[in-house]
Amino acid sequence: MSEQDIIISIRNLWKIYRVGQVDVPALRGANLDVYRGEFVAVVGPSGSGKSTMFHIIGGLTPATSGTVIVNGRDITRMTDAERTRMRRTQVGFVFQKYNLLPTLTAYDNIAIARHIATGRADLEPEFMEVLELLGIAHRLHHKPSALSGGEQQRVAIARAIVNHPAILLADEPTGNLDSVNSQAVLRVLKDLNRRLGQTILMITHDMEVASWADRIVHMRDGQILDWETSRPVPAVRSGSETNTEEPN
User: Fold this and answer.
1) Residues 114 and 120 sit within 8 Å (Cβ to Cβ)
2) What is d(CA 189, CA 236) in angstroms, rounded to the nearest whole number?
3) What CA–CA distance (Å, rounded) separates 213 from 205?
4) In tens digits, what is the pLDDT along the chain, a chain of 248 residues?
């Protein structure tokens, strides 16, 4: 791959928090490249800096020093307003907690993200194919309380990609799910990556979850240690198989 294929480029990234009179470094000169269309998992123990790096890439937290190029733009040089616009158009977020609005249907939870970014609340007709791929097209008029954990997370994924972001950042996306629902969500992420070419950067502490990615990056003490190609994972099931009922 060439440099033109790099969608995230991190160079000498530092993040230092001030705690009382003490400087606490969360990132210590981290370096990482992610290529367009890759599915990369970042693993490491608590306090390794992976979530801090995630928040900086997504424009949620400013860096102390270093550069972070996301889809051709250095977000470390952006103003707060520019980072906000970048988040709305270039980055999709999926978190451990689904963060769905409980009074809205699945459809409206997805549509509100589109409205915030574009001013339009209608979903594009072709996006319905994505909802079929996610296995939630038949559940759009249900509120979160009527959905299983796996279905709620898939609604959260749909909300994250409704504006066709350049990258999808997933922070412990299976952390609240049992093994069956975890597998369903991971199959969805793998399918989005393989079929739609969605670039995915996933944070996890679980090596079994990380094995679904194409590449695993190891972090410790605020630094990137190394990376490895993941072992093969089970074949991705079709959308119709994904539509089966899941346990809560």
Assistant:
1) yes
2) 10
3) 13
4) 566 699 999 999 999 998 888 999 999 999 999 999 999 999 998 889 999 999 999 999 999 999 999 999 999 999 999 998 888 889 999 998 888 999 999 999 999 988 887 777 778 888 888 999 899 999 999 999 999 999 999 999 999 999 899 999 999 999 888 898 899 999 999 999 999 999 999 999 999 999 999 999 999 999 998 766 654 444 443 343 434 344 34
Residue found by looking up tokens 């194409």 in the block: 214
For the entire predicted model, the pTM comes to 0.86
Give whole-number Cα distances, 78 to 56, 82, 221, in Å.
12, 6, 27
Any idea where the domains of the chain sit in the sequence? 3-242
Q: Is the dihedral of CA 168, 210, 107, 243 positive or negative?
A: positive
C-alpha pair distances (Å), 200 with each of 157, 229, 231: 11, 15, 17
Classify domain 3-242 by CATH number: 3.40.50.300
Residue 82: count other Cβ atoms within 10 Å of its Cβ: 13
